[in-house]
Predict the structure.
Amino acid sequence: MARSPKPTPLWIPIVAAACFALAAVLQTDTFSTVMFGIAAAVLAVTAVVQWRLRRRDS
């Protein structure tokens, strides 16, 4: 039976979301700002979901 993969450390999506949010703030055109903002939001949601799953499993 295959073992489940080791979960990603929680700090990775948090730092990535912060970097994408900073990049969104620094963009000059609207399209890039929106795309970086969406990426930051998705990574933030991913971090919250992973945190809740780990909390439930513990």
Summary: The mean pLDDT is 89. The chain has two helices and no strands. The first helix runs from residue 11 to 26. Residues 20 and 38 are 9 Å apart (CA to CA).
